[in-house]
Design a protein that fits this description.
- The chain is mainly β.
- The chain is about 10% helix and about 60% strand.
- It has a single domain, classed as Beta Barrel (Porin), CATH 2.40.160.20.
- The protein has one helix at about 1-20; strands spanning about 25-30, 40-45, 50-60, 70-85, 90-105, 110, 115-125, 130-135, 140-145, 150, 155-160.
- Strands 1-2-3-4-5-7-8-11 form an eight-stranded antiparallel beta barrel.
- The longest helix has 17 residues, at about 1-20.
Length: about 160
């Protein structure tokens, strides 16, 4: 039920953003520890932006103890502080967090293995056309589950629409 509510919320937000300003709203895919993995929506204002990321996926083999089944939902929320905006690229500082709800099946029982990470650092968004953009980011990331702080690159591919 929770998964269906999240998917419905993602679709409603996407539809709402689609009707907004020309070329300021994008959908795409984004991958990063502190930004979240999966489908992403990015909305630029005059100088700053926000980004929401969502994915639901399953990995592993349901009948193996060496490669246990993992069901995951990844959620990310980020804010982009615009520093420079030229015709071909944007330079910004990214700040945000990601939370992964993960259930692992070991020895026939499901166990919780949730994870979260926060990060901040520089990023660039390059325009390949009016509508296709690529982002590359290098946030300093604190990963709670592994108790480690380090630079972990992130990035995404976006399509801007009206």
């Amino acid at each position: 039920m929770f998964k269906k509510i999240l998917i419905l919320l993602f679709v409603c937000v996407s539809a709402h953003l689609a009707g907004m300003d020309k070329y300021n709203t994008a959908m795409g895919v984004h991958f990063g520890t502190s930004t979240g993995n999966g489908y992403s929506i990015r909305k630029w204002g005059n100088t700053n932006a926000y980004q929401l990321t969502f994915a639901a996926y399953t990995t592993g083999n349901r009948n193996s103890n060496h490669n246990p089944r993992k069901n995951s939902i990844s959620l990310g929320a980020n804010y982009l502080w615009g520093l420079h905006d030229s015709q071909r690229y944007k330079f910004y500082v990214l700040s945000g967090m990601a939370y992964t709800i993960r259930r692992v099946k070991e020895d026939g029982t499901w166990e919780s293995d949730d994870r979260w990470a926060v990060g901040a650092g520089p990023g660039f968004e390059f325009e390949f056309s009016d509508r296709f953009h690529v982002s590359i980011e290098l946030p300093m990331t604190y990963n709670y589950k592994d108790d480690i702080t380090m630079y972990i690159p992130s990035g995404g591919f976006y399509y801007y629409f009206k």
